Amino acid sequence: MIKSRKSIITGTIAISFSAMLWGLDGVVLTPRLYNLDVFYVVFVLHAIPFIIMNFFFSKEYSKIKLFNQSDYITLLLISVFGGAIGTISIVKALFLVNFEQLTVVILLQKLQPIFAISLAAILLKEKLRKNFLFWAGLAIISGYFMTFGFNLPDFNSGGNTIYASLLAFLAAFSFGSSTVFSKKILLKYDFKTATFYRYGITSLFMFIIVIIGGKLPQFHQTTTQNWTYFLLIAITTGSGAIFLFYYGLTRVKAIIATICELFFPMTAIILDYFVNDTILSTVQWISAIVMIFSIIILNARNTKDSATS
Question: How many CB atoms lie within 10 A of CB 62?
């Protein structure tokens, strides 16, 4: 029982920290790649970590003979939704608003729990406890007010904002779906295997898209500074964060993992203050505190439920 409680707490911390790394990436790192094509950027962001993984986890190729048809389909869904579509959508949304309106990106995290919680209940048969709905709802609502205050999202600032919002919605669905599919594959394989094949399949998928789209010449347009950020992202907010996320996902339910991921928008808002001098209003700070409190309560209840079941 004690081991189970420690495992859940460790998993919660791992997922929350990975979400914070993604917040760092969205505000500080990825914006430095604005001069490159989105599809090329997503390809390189997956290819570099996968190449590095081959030096340490080459034995993972032996797992191929263990995969059945269902495993291949699940890994493909994880790669297509979480690796390709989700990443392309969020990066493109950032590029469209020139990294000046982080509300569009953070909108992603306000919608993602809706898809992930629903899919976890449907596909993984995870029970939605009575109190969970209250605290999860409070966390999501607080996340909205933390981002927008008492105002509605501004869709009147131009076509790019509307387009970026639609992409953020698509990314929300994609990442939410990937979270649930990842939990499914982690029921059979460890987080190293899941990460290795997610990056491998996504790299192959994106390479085909880059070739077909004629984006390979972007390689010659990649500056030394671009490569520096590519490598930094690869070992920290990229594969590093994914490893932490999958490590934590093996220890907590998908619906709890989704709520922990709300640390991404919280981190983005805080970094936005220090990097871009964006000042939060009183209601945004209060909402951030309420959201964190809701996450703590959710994890505390999940620990108690697991220990007594």
Answer: 8
